[in-house]
């Protein structure tokens, strides 16, 4: 098999614009592999499938809001061992997968989920709807990087500027007294980036959550993607939103009433 360098460049140049000068190693590796394999190889080369970035990338991603919040909250739930834990809209292939390793978890989401996985049960529901009436349903609940989307229409939900407030109210009703709520949203200069998400100032979040909850702990992921755990919420920290523009605030809350 001969490599068509013209096709190789034209197919991948848009995706990998810096790779033109680096493709020589790919050709060398291909020719070396073909020579070492011999004519009667048990694995014939069917086609070229150039992966031009992997050699230069890191081994993986171990930072950022999703990585840290999913791991941090999963550890909290493992430690607290609730009777019934429910999740609202968090990442299936991150946080939900972590928790399902060691306990059952029930998911509520406006989108469908067809997969059947051990320890994961699913209910399709819209928390902004007046028909959503789950009262004192569980003693533990999580909503990680989800409530900022409510009411923006991104996931098929109705447009509602107060969608985040309605969703939060329904979550509060779902929790029993003294129940734990693990809550995260983007944090920084308060704004909407339509229709992606809201970004909340820490001062807004603080006033919002303390109406119905005691703050057990506050952590955040900064703009560099690093986790800062158990931060004392002084006036200076609250007013500055921890210096974030697009960070992630992570609250461990306990319901007051």
Overall description:
This protein has 257 residues and is α/β, with parallel strands linked by helices. It has 2 domains: 57 residues, no CATH class; 191 residues, Vaccinia Virus protein VP39 (Rossmann fold). 28% of the residues lie in helices and 23% in strands. The protein is built from 7 helices and 10 strands. The protein has an 8-stranded mixed β-sheet with strand order 3-2-1-4-5-10-8-9. Strands 6-7 form a two-stranded antiparallel sheet. Helix 3 runs parallel beside helix 4. The chain starts with a helix and ends with a strand.
Quickly describe the structure.
With 257 residues, the protein is an alpha/beta fold. 28% of the residues lie in helices and 23% in strands. It has helices spanning 5-12, 24-37, 65-80, 92-100, 163-174, 202-209, 235-240, and strands at 85-88, 105-109, 120-124, 138-144, 175-187, 191-193, 197-199, 213-221, 227-228, 247-255.
Average pLDDT figure: 91
Distance between the termini: 71 Å
Structural class, please?
Answer: alpha/beta
**How many strands, what sense, and barrel or not for the largest sheet?**
8 strands, mixed
Unreliable segments of 5+ consecutive residues: 9-13
Fraction in helix: 25-40%
Portion in strands? 15-25%
Largest sheet strand order: 3-2-1-4-5-10-8-9
Taken together, the total number of domains comes to 2
CATH class of the largest domain: Alpha Beta
CATH superfamily of the largest domain: Vaccinia Virus protein VP39
Write down the secondary-structure element order.
Answer: HHHEHEEEHEEEHEEHE
Cα shape: elongated
Number of helices: 7
